[in-house]
Amino acid sequence: MSASVKAYGGSSGYIVSDELRNSVNIAIALQKPLLIKGEPGTGKTMLAQSIAEALNMDLIIWNIKSTTKAQEGLYVYDTVQRLYDSQFGDGDVGNIKKYIKLGKLGEAFLAPKQVVLLIDEIDKADLEFPNDLLWELDQMSFYIPETKETITAKQRPIVIITSNAEKELPDAFLRRCIFHYIAFPDPDTMESIISVHHPKLEKKLLEQAMETFYLLRNVPDIQKKPSTSELIDWLQALVVGGVNPNRIKKDLPFLGVLLKKNEDLDTLLQQLQGKGSTKNPGVLGRFR
Question: Which residues have a Cβ under 8 Å from the Cβ of 201 and sit 6 or more positions away?
Fold first, then answer.
């Protein structure tokens, strides 16, 4: 990579694989958005935070919802406020610029120095949303017809786009991105991640909790498998609760930290009963 291009090498609070680090740096070098997919809890959002920290850049986050429109990321023309001012205000309603508010993409374009722009959970929006951003992300500019001005990026932001793969993204959009899938951490990688958050964890507790965690993830028909963030919270709960490590697998304490759906609790109970684990049938009941 050219010495003039900033390189991402990871950060103290985020464990990054060689493949992911390379994908980030290729996206930076080619000045293309980096599309990150993976199941919830695999660190997609935290990656953008890590990049901003490592490269000493500001982070601008555009959280996408089902109702979000691409236009909102560029700018919003507050016609309601202008109408209100025309009736009750003393300001100059002829100055339309007063009523133009830049969205997150607009803010990133006009930032005085390069920033990291996170477009988080793009697959929550409607199918046309990604296509509506193609021109702006390619050209790094957009036109405001109300003021007849073009907003052009002072510095091309590093664009990170996350997706939980809830729906397929358009091919035209995918062609313009560098893609990386974050696989769920294997036990060795997970231990490295946990050591960042719980550096002084008792070894026996960690071993028993990890074994139980991966067993739960492998239970058939679980709708929402527990994620990394939930494991980290569960470990904290086990420590605060003073749980004996030898009883973690048997008692499944604080199970509601890991499983968030009644259906999953029922599925787990059925699996346990199916394996003959009925000595304490009420063990899960108190977590509902």
Answer: 194, 195, 235, 239
The amino acid at residue 89 is: G
For domain 18-181, give the CATH number: 3.40.50.300
For the chain, domain boundaries:
18-181, 187-287
Q: What percent of the chain has pLDDT over 70?
A: 92
Q: What is the model's pTM? A: 0.84
Residue 31 neighbours by CB under 8 Å, 6+ apart: 156
pLDDT tens digits along 199-223: 999 999 999 999 999 999 998 889 8
Question: What's the half-sphere exposure (Cβ side, CA atoms, 13 Å) at 109?
Answer: 20
Report helix angle 203-217 to 228-240, nearest 10: 140
Give the span between the Cα atoms of 120 and 61, in whole angstroms. 7
Let me know: does 42 contact 115? Beta carbons within 8 Å.
no
Q: Which residues contact 174 (CB under 8 A, 6 or more apart)?
A: 35
- Three-state DSSP class for residue 13: coil
Torsion of CA 189, 191, 197, 202, to 10 degrees: 180
Interval 115-168: pLDDT, tens: 999 999 999 998 889 999 998 999 999 999 999 999 999 999 999 999 987 788
